[in-house]
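Entry 0007
Protein: P1 family peptidase
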Amino acid sequence: MENLTLTAIPGIRVGHFTETRRPTGCTVVLFDVPAVAGVDVRGGAPGTRETDALAPLNLVDQTHAIVLAGGSAFGLDAATGVVRYLRERDIGFDVGVARIPIVPAAILFDLHTGDPTIYPDADAGYRACLAATDAPVTEGAVGAGAGATVGKLLGIERASRGGSGSFAFKLPSGVQVAALVIVNAVGDIRHPQTQAILAGARQADGSFADLAARIRAGDIARFAPLPPASHTTIGLVAVNVPLTKPELTKVAHMAHDGLARTISPVHTLFDGDTLFAVSVPDPALAGATDTSCLGALAADAVAEAVARGVMSATFPA
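Output (structure tokens):
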């Protein structure tokens, strides 16, 4: 069966750690060779690590792994375990006296699903690395998506399950663009083509409340009851075309359009929406297409991954 997930691009491995004591976990993306990366943070309540290193004007031009984790700010500790895994294998940015692993990370809030003192730690990140494989990415309520929920504007008791989703395109030229998204939004999730609601806030009878319609009608006038920084959709897109940090930053920027097509509302003050973009290049594809085409494909891949993330999970929560 054809692999239509992030690992369809050669040189990428993905590992999940799913906590058994409560719904939470982390997801690690490893690169067989250092990858150039960019990032775009759109949400108003982000939780990130090493994203400044990816700025186009800054020195480091290689990334060795990317971590996506639940657990809110506590979950950033998962990256420490990934650094240890890479250090043990002498993988990192060579500074002469040592090789320093560059491991950007982003987290989402899932502390309302069970005991909030349990979250992905360094051991969880290390174990996700050990589980990493180039097999098709497992989707649904696994890894960082284990405790994900969507449609929380009417309260967590009315929400649906979120989850991890992945999708990949391969063009006749051999160009590949793929996405992995952990869907944990304030808003509803809509089908990227039909705009039908796939998951989201539910009314007392179990039907979808349609948050966008409720906001337009004036039934919802403020988000104030929501705890700050309590949601967030995070992920990454990858291409097999050689790109620079500025070009990948633009791809990440355009990839957020995929969130806008499927999450309503999106990029709120209560979401920390963050997307990374990486190049795991096939040198033969240099110049095969331009940044704008890759960004457009990245947005489509993100939209498909969002839909797959909630359709692969069990909901309502």
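Curator remark: The chain has one domain: 6-311. DSSP finds five helices and 16 strands in the chain.
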